[in-house]
From TrEMBL:
Membrane topology: Single-pass membrane protein
Gene Ontology molecular function: any one: fibroblast growth factor binding
SMART domains registered for this protein in UniProt: IG, IGc2
Protein name: receptor protein-tyrosine kinase
Pfam families: I-set, Ig_3
Keyword flag Disulfide bond: yes
Keyword Zinc included in the entry's annotation: no
SUPFAM superfamilies registered for this protein in UniProt: Immunoglobulin (SSF48726)
Length: 317
């Protein structure tokens, strides 16, 4: 004898809901019995992130085995080869990447009996590497020794490090702005944000100022850090300033994604065990419900035509 039933894996995040059943339903409340928990298995994954600077080439390998055919999508749209995108077997190559190439990619491996999908994120941005730049290990070039008798107003000593005014970086990265300068007497440096004095309490976590490298460092940037940052370098003989613009790029929000083919149908004998797997890809924290179709007063559907459903298990990650 075989026991059967219909189970739903319902995944919810703050921005959207993904369900394997109808979007509306009638829930059956059972206050007398503790709901049983069927054997279940949750797998929550965040897509792997690949970062490239504009103009760079990017190569990604589809990490799925034994694939007869591999298909690719970007933001849910089929992806084919073009003058910048090359598809060779399990490899995807993007030549001369641009910010438009950023998004959620997926490769689906089709096999004889099933298919499997792997997801990854691509961010094409002028990101500044986290931590300190390598050139900070030697900041001697930023200081120019001045003859004590030669008084001089502030001046820039390395304008090449200041050419890039617009910085667009992903959230949670570290940002560094530099204003290497000289002068006699040695000038001082202060920072403004959007034309006003920039204080430590103006951002969560504060910031670092390394006077020996004429730099401002902000770790784990967030959208509220967007704005114009101006270094003001001055001594008694004059003042100079330079402004950078920071844009913090957030990942494109997307609804939760259930791996294709999951959860799958399963059969078992009475008294046997059965396992359902719900594999979810989500950047945001997902909320998962397992729901079963039930009967009420001999009917599977309510007066409104919607099925009766019972919540068996709820879990938030």
């Amino acid at each position: 004898m075989v026991s059967w039933g219909r189970f739903i894996c319902l995944v919810v995040v703050t921005m959207a809901t993904l369900s394997l059943a109808r979007p509306s339903f009638s829930l059956v409340e059972d206050t007398t019995l503790e709901p049983e928990e069927p054997p279940t298995k949750y797998q929550i994954s965040q897509p792997e992130v690949y970062v490239a600077a504009p103009g760079e080439s990017l190569e990604v390998r589809c990490l799925l085995k034994d694939a007869a055919v591999i298909s690719w999508t970007k933001d849910g749209v089929h992806l084919g080869p073009n003058n910048r995108t090359v598809l060779i077997g399990e490899y995807l190559q993007i030549k001369g990447a641009t910010p438009r190439d950023s998004g959620l990619y997926a490769c689906t491996a089709s096999r004889t009996v099933d298919s499997e999908t792997w997801y990854f994120m691509v961010n094409v941005t002028d990101a500044i590497s986290s931590g300190d730049d390598e050139d900070d290990t030697d900041g001697a070039e930023d200081f120019v020794s001045e003859n004590s008798n030669n008084k001089r107003a502030p001046y820039w000593t390395n304008t090449e490090k200041m050419e890039k005014r617009l910085h667009a970086v992903p959230a949670a990265n570290t940002v560094k702005f530099r204003c290497p300068a000289g002068g006699n007497p040695m000038p001082t440096m202060r920072w403004l944000k959007n034309g006003k004095e920039f204080k430590q309490e103006h951002r969560i976590g504060g910031y670092k100022v390394r006077n020996q490298h004429w730099s401002l460092i902000m770790e784990s940037v967030v959208p509220s850090d967007k704005g114009n940052y101006t270094c003001v370098v001055e001594n008694e003989y004059g003042s100079i300033n330079h402004t950078y613009h920071l844009d913090v790029v957030e990942r494109s929000p997307h609804r939760p994604i259930l791996q294709a083919g999951l959860p799958a149908n399963a059969s078992t004998v009475v008294g046997g065990d059965v396992e359902f797997v719900c594999k979810v890809y989500s950047d945001a924290q997902p909320h998962i419900q397992w729901i079963k179709h039930v009967e009420k007063n001999g009917s599977k559907y309510g007066p409104d035509g919607l099925p009766y459903l019972k919540v068996l298990k709820v879990r938030t990650f």
